[in-house]
């Protein structure tokens, strides 16, 4: 499960505003910091945090696409 989440987050991080390299380093650091975690409750919390980050990134990209489309189709003066 961790590997799938890591790969999916890497995929989402390709278009991160500060760059893919920045996102990859932060992601790797976050996963390495918690690699030895064995407490099931803590693992559930970390997975929930990962799911939250995924949703936040998706919302960020959706909003960016929406703003770009709005800028193209609507008069910026109004």
Automatic annotation (TrEMBL):
Highest taxon above the source species: Eukaryota
**GO terms under cellular component:** mitochondrion
Pfam families xref list:
Complex1_LYR
**Residue ranges constituting the Complex 1 LYR protein domain according to the UniProt record:** 9-53
Gene Ontology process terms (BP): negative regulation of oxidative phosphorylation; respiratory electron transport chain
InterPro entries linked? Complex1_LYR_dom (IPR008011), Complex1_LYR_ETFRF1_LYRM5 (IPR045296), ETFRF1 (IPR052000)
Concerning CDD domains, the annotation shows:
Complex1_LYR_ETFRF1_LYRM5
Q: Which family does it belong to?
A: Belongs to the complex I LYR family.
Any idea what this protein is called? LYR motif containing 5a
Instruction: Say which species the protein is native to.
Output: Poecilia reticulata (Guppy)
Taxonomic path: Eukaryota, Metazoa, Chordata, Craniata, Vertebrata
């Amino acid at each position: 499960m961790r590997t799938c989440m890591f790969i999916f987050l890497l995929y989402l991080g390709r278009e991160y505003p500060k760059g893919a390299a920045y996102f990859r380093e932060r992601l790797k650091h976050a996963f390495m910091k918690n690699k030895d975690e064995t407490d099931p409750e803590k693992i559930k919390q970390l997975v929930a945090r990962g799911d939250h980050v995924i949703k936040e990134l998706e919302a960020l990209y959706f909003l960016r696409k929406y703003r770009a489309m709005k800028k193209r189709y609507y008069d910026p003066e109004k």
